Amino acid sequence: MADQIEDLVKLQPVVIKQLQVLYEKNRIAHAYIFEGAKGTGKKNIAMFFVKLLVCQNVSENVPCETCRNCKRVDSGNYPNLLQIEPDGQYIKIDQIRELIGEMTRTGFEEGRKFYIIHHADRLNTSSSNTLLKFLEEPEGEVTAILLTENYQSILPTIQSRCQHIKFSPVPREILMTTLQEQGISLSMASTVSQVTNNLETAIFLAKDEQFAHVRRTVLKLVEAIKKNVHEALFIVYEDWLPSFKEKSDMELALDLLLFAYRDIVTVKSDSKSALVYPDMLASFRELALHSTFDQLSKQMQAILQTRQNLQRNMNRTLMMEQLMLNLQEGYTFV
Hints:
By secondary structure, the protein is of the alpha/beta class. The chain has helices at residues 2-11, 13-24, 42-54, 68-75, 93-104, 125-136, 156-159, 172-181, 186-195, 199-206, 209-227, 229-243, 247-268, 281-289, 293-311, 316-328, and strands at 31-35, 81-84, 113-117, 142-148, 163-166. The chain has two domains: 2-168, P-loop containing nucleotide triphosphate hydrolases (Rossmann fold), CATH 3.40.50; 208-328, Zinc Finger, Delta Prime, domain 3, CATH 1.20.272. Strand 3, helix 6 and strand 4 form a beta-alpha-beta unit. It catalyses: DNA(n) + a 2'-deoxyribonucleoside 5'-triphosphate = DNA(n+1) + diphosphate. Residues 245-328 form the DNA polymerase III delta subunit C-terminal domain.
């Protein structure tokens, strides 16, 4: 259990500290909105907060995890805690009425009562208004925790009555570990975790054949640039331009190309930073050996310039031809 709390601290150090300070100073609000992307730990931290407030043996602002109350919260049998999930697409008015009925009946234990609303952005208008009245005039000691990935979709009147706690994106090293636990290779986990820090999006990209194709094409181009401009242009005409007809695909490919050159800089500077393409280490070492920092900087600037030109709707063939010439300049291969 201590490991679980350690993991939460690694995932959301600022949020955990915020909640611990609220507990320590006994400044518990009657309602919170926990906002963060999927995979940022909102549900687990909501349960941590409930346990912190009901634990019988709190030590250093951390619940003990072993007392009767902690165990009942973990097992879902704590009578003073209710949770609501959307019923279909929305959280309906009857669910909120039932929640309020449960919260106001007398069969509860002594002490603070809690309710957690999952996907609170899916409250419809009628259920939002019903909840609003209860938020304004809760009976007794009641704390609401609303969880959402989409804060702006919650009624402003509800927002104004809740303390807003914003969760940080998942740190890259944690995202990479989680992806590998899902059976995704280190190489692919390293790449997708640079493109997004949303767990759901990362898993989708890691398993998407189109994304894998973009990655392969980009790395093929880096290898071709190393040889000569003719090889590079051949890849541009045969693979790059036919594959990346949509602007979004071209943007992604240029981003992945930029990451490759950043990796080469990382290798050259002997930095401990995690590579975006760990599977390319041997090749990037060779490139780093034959490149100066000034040259690598100019190459990255050329890619960034190309990305800007893409937004200006320049002719893509001419744009990529110019980029290949700029990337080829100055290589010292014999």
